[in-house]
Amino acid sequence: MKVATQIVEHQRGFLEYGDEAMKPLVLHDIAEAVGMHESTISRVTTQKFMHTPRGIYELKYFFSSHVSTSEGGECSSTAIRAIIKKLVAAENQKKPLSDSKIAGLLEAQGIQVARRTVAKYRESLGIAPSSERKRLM
User: What is the pTM of this model?
Assistant: First the structure.
C-alpha cells in the first residue's frame, strides 16, 4: 500500500493529464521514500495492477527512465513516446516527419534526444518509418 501511495503521489500529473505528464521514476526513488530495498519494490510491483481514471495499469508501467532537458530538468521516456505519437498523428500525410525532423521538434521543446532514440521509441509504438507512412496513403 505504501508503494502504491508513493507511486500515485509521484505520478499525479500522469493520472490527471495523461502520458505526456509522466515523470521519470526509478525503483530507487520509491525504495528510498518507503524505506525498503529496490529488489523488494521490484517484487511488490510485479504482476500487480492499479485501477486509475485512465484505465488499469501494471505498477511497473509507472516506472520510466529519463532524458535530460535543455532547462536542466528531466522528461520521462513515456512522455517522449506520447509526444512522438502526437506529432506523427498530426503530421502532413503527404510529407510524413522523418526521425531527424521529430528529434528537431523535440529539441525545440527542450528535449534532447538522438535520431536513433526517436527511431527506437517510434518502433516501440508500432509506428512505421516515414517512407512507409508515405506509401500507406
Answer: 0.80
